[in-house]
Amino acid sequence: MSSMMNRLFNLIDKASEKSTRKAAQHYGRRSFLARAGTVFAGAMLVPVLPFDRSLGGAAFAATTEDENDCSYWKHCALDGNLCSTSGGSLTSCPAGTEASKVSWIGTCRNPNDEKDYLVSYNDCCGRATVPSSTFCFTSEGERPGYRMGLHNDINWCMANTNKGYHCTVSVVLGVANT
Amino acid sequence: MNHKGACGLLIVLLLAVQLLSQAAAAERSAAANYILRCAGCHGTEGRGVASAGIPTFPGYVDEFFNDEEGRLYLMHVPGVVGAGLRNDEISEVMNYVVDRWGKPNVAVKHFTTEEVGRLRKQPVKDVVLLRYSITDRLAEEGVELPEYTWP
């Protein structure tokens, strides 16, 4: 019985040794490194490709084509009433008002071409606000009030003769990365 | 190198290129930074709003670049202080401004990142008084300066 067991173990030992030697002759350590490297590099792609770099901002969520909706892409850094719902349009002040001489400028991503655009948010000045107009507060990229140069909660009519705030337009100035 | 090794190297190279291109995309040009951080008040054409204390650039701004005290002043104007730009970005935007709106055929000294950092560290108690001391001196030398109404 014991000799039978010894023979069996010898067979298993020889088979293991043979397959190990065969593997060692066939596959070098470099092939393992290459395969492992491919796996690690592939794993790096997983968090890189679908990563949202908008820091939770509205740019990626802006999919509506409705200019009167706060989630319309050009309104991503806006704080105020839409002029398009105040008697004007997306880019022009309503009659009886004038565009502010200074403005807040932000960047918004256009979901149609995935490019970032510089958008000027000029206030329209000289009349009271329209109660039924749409108020938006997106202000993407804004910083707290103690960083005044980067803060948008300001009446941009301050440099005009008529300082009364009416509404805000969204005017594209150009592409941000050029 | 066998084909598996070459494949692994290619993937690593592609990743490096991707990371580099993302870093490059995050950088804005001086022109874009000017629009984003300066043009809200100074305007896309650099005209400013004189009545609101924002002086015009075209034809005047180079005078401040070619004056040592003027260079210190430029690094302490509220728009530069509050723009949230790095020293290298500030030097690029300042050089963009003077190249675009300085008087033609007038040599100007450009800013370097090192100089921006050094001048920003120098304390300036009252930037408006500093401006007036500079413009009074330049006016005595016969230099033409833009309208400035502050405070």
In short:
The complex is a heterodimer of chains A (178) and B (151). Chain A is an alpha+beta fold and 178 residues long.
Descriptive labels:
A: about 180 residues; alpha+beta; B: about 150 residues; mainly alpha; Cytochrome Bc1 Complex, Chain D, domain 2; 9 helices
What layout of secondary structure does this protein have?
The complex is a heterodimer of chains A (178) and B (151).
Chain A: H1 2-26, H2 29-48, E1 79-81, E2 98-99, E3 104-110, E4 115-121, E5 123-125, E6 135-137, E7 165-168, E8 171-175
Antiparallel strand pairs in A: 1-6, 2-5, 3-4, 4-8, 5-7
Chain B: H1 3-26, H2 30-37, H3 39-42, H4 62-65, H5 68-74, H6 78-81, H7 87-101, H8 113-121, H9 127-140
The fraction of residues assigned to DSSP E strands of chain B is under 5%
SSE string of chain A = HHEEEEEEEE
CATH superfamily of chain B: Cytochrome c-like domain
Shape of chain A: rod-shaped
Can you give the helix content of chain B as a percent range? 55-70%
Q: Using CB atoms under 8 Å apart, which protein chain pair has the greatest interface?
A: A-B, 33 and 31 residues
Please provide the count of β strands of chain B: 0
Arithmetic mean pLDDT of chain B: 89
Written account of the structure:
The complex is a heterodimer of chains A (178) and B (151). Chain A contains 2 helices and 8 strands, in the order ααββββββββ. Chain A is of the alpha+beta class. Mean pLDDT of chain A is 83; it is low at 45-61. Chain B is mainly α. In chain B, helix 2 (30-37) crosses helix 7 (87-101) and helix 7 (87-101) crosses helix 8. Chain B is elongated, with a radius of gyration of 21 Å. Chains A and B meet through helix 2, strand 3 and strand 8 of A and helix 1, helix 2, helix 3 and helix 6 of B.
